[in-house]
Design a protein that fits this description.
Length: 246
Amino acid sequence: MKKLVGLCIPLLLAIAMLSGCGKDSSGSNSATGSGRQQSEKNTETTVSNKTEDSDHMDSNATAKKLVVYFSMPETTNPENMSREEELSTVVIDGEVLGNTQYVAYIIAENIGADIFRIEPITPYPLNHSELEDIAQKEQAENFRPEISGTVENIDQYDIIFFGFPNWYYDMPMIMYSFLDQYDLAGKTVVPFVTSGASGFSDAINTIKDMEPDADVVTDGLSILRKEVQDSESDIIDWLADKGFIQ
Ligand SMILES: Cc1cc2nc3c(=O)[nH]c(=O)nc-3n(C[C@H](O)[C@H](O)[C@H](O)COP(=O)(O)O)c2cc1C
């Protein structure tokens, strides 16, 4: 079992509580603040001799950000996990998180983003082979599962982090539902993925095709599931390298 204790756990659990695992207190699946105050944002833009890079980094740091993700931990029980359940989860202080969910929390916490969990109206089964069957069928039929809840006022966001597990060398079909539903024109889209081995497959090109007027980051963040549990510092380094953390 991938058990994590210590690092950042209170912060992660605070986000989990604020986001209600994707649902706010009214039960709707709306985007939720990370808990970071507006005043913490870097508004120091008075230096006159900045390079283009530092301008870019400042704008990344001050932009309004949303982390949108889908994740399918295959159990809610931290004990006696099957191999498949272990592979799709990270356990923090007894709480089971999906791999992509964990990465989403680390990103949101470190960049001060709001967070929205994409969830289907009809929940997916926890059973691995049933989940595989449904995922394959949805892909074969180019199906668009209906999303529970909405992102309120997506226009307010400049940067959308867009995270998912690789399912059959592609995004889960519910990510297509999201891209059908929301116009991300003019926004920066930062894809991130967790996978057994496949990384993004061709998903970044698909996102670009579906959101032709968005600025889609082509070298998104890809983390193997076997590395998720130790990925916090790599994620933070990656965010810093891209200018999302200063
Ligand atoms: C239905 C299904 C299909 C998958 N297909 C792939 C695949 O094609 N390539 C791959 O590397 N991993 C694949 N995986 C593994 C997941 O991408 C990986 O376990 C991921 O980290 C799960 O993230 P999550 O816990 O956030 O859902 C698949 C998993 C499932 C459940």
